[in-house]
Amino acid sequence: MNVKVKSEVNARGLVVWPIVDEDTEVCGAAVEFGERLKNIGDQLQSNTQAAASDGVVVETYTGTGTGNLTLGVSDLLPSEETLLFGRTVASGNVVVTTGKEKTPCVRTAFITDRSDGKVNLYKYFKVKYAPYERATQQVNESGQATFTTLTVNGTYFQSQSSVLEGLKAEAKGVDPATEAGAAFIANWMANPDFIGGNAMMNTSTISVDGVTVLSGATGTVGDATIITGAASGGTAPYSYSYYYKKRGSNVWQPRGEGVTAAMNAVMPGTVGIYDFKCIAKDANDVAIEKTWEINYEAAPPEPDNP
């Protein structure tokens, strides 16, 4: 039996799914807290199991006990307080329940950054959070503005679902700079049941004038450019959304959204670099983005007739 105490300050990307049926542990739509998660604390007493998945070692923690999870967040919306605590009322700086509601049960995931550029991923299968107390920071000697942090304490429990087993899962050292690593992270944060295995991948390709090319290729003004959407893993069916823009513009032009066909041909009319994007999405709304850049040059002059 291992007792593990952990505290990290470089946490981010908090996602919470409401568990709409505690018997089956089916989750509802994700609620993203984004970068408002600042730090976490975790204390558990459990056994550890490890397994390789998609090239990433995923550890799961099992046992009959529970664990304590503490989240430090910068702010919560009223709808998020309802998600985490049930209906709440404020009493000074303390948020408390009315005592007439059942504490909601949620699934929780987040990311922590590492000094080597890689990330660690965490997912807690069943968590019940208690109302928090606000802790206001004072203005320092440099005159920086005050800010408020919220400390949210939760208890996590053993999952009894047919999909997940144990208290939580961790995937450490995932490289977001690689296509496989980025896909693994996207699956982890979008699918409440994903802890490794059949990760969804965006395998779409782009062709210029009928030839499949890689990002950075060169084309000619007027060449027909087509993205063919493709995906693997995850849960079929898949849909694709296509966009393009000329480098320097901040506006992506849609060329088909939520479709199953290839992108309608784009034929750039001016020289320069164009960016193309395909977002592939599976049945669980796991979305993986893939981008290309193509440099279009002027067509060579027609030869003079003798």
Could you characterize what this model shows?
With 306 residues, the chain is mainly beta. It folds into two domains: 2-190, no CATH class; 201-297, Sandwich (Immunoglobulin-like), CATH 2.60.40. Helix content is 7%, strand content 51%. A six-stranded antiparallel beta barrel has the order 5-6-13-11-12-7. The longest helix has 12 residues, at 179-190. The N and C termini lie far apart (89 Å).
Layout of secondary structure:
Blueprint: E1 2-8, E2 11-21, E3 26-27, E4 31-34, E5 37-53, E6 56-62, E7 67-73, H1 78-85, E8 88-91, E9 94-97, E10 106-113, E11 119-136, E12 148-157, E13 168-174, H2 179-190, E14 201-202, E15 205-208, E16 211-213, E17 218-220, E18 225-228, E19 231-232, E20 239-246, E21 253-254, E22 272-281, E23 287-297
Parallel strand pairs: 17-23
Antiparallel strand pairs: 1-5, 2-3, 2-4, 2-10, 5-6, 5-7, 6-13, 7-12, 8-9, 10-11, 11-12, 11-13, 14-19, 15-16, 15-18, 20-21, 20-22, 22-23
H and E string:
EEEEEEEHEEEEEEHEEEEEEEEEE
Largest sheet: 6 strands, antiparallel, barrel
Give the number of helices.
Answer: 2
Rg measurement, Å: 24 Å
Number of domains: 2
Task: Tell me the fraction of residues in β-strands, as a range.
Answer: over 45%
Give the helix proportion (percent range): under 10%
**Are there runs of 5+ residues with pLDDT below 50, and where?**
none
Shape annotation: elongated
Q: Which structural class is indicated by helix and strand composition? A: mainly beta
User: Strands of the biggest beta sheet: in what spatial order?
Assistant: 5-6-13-11-12-7
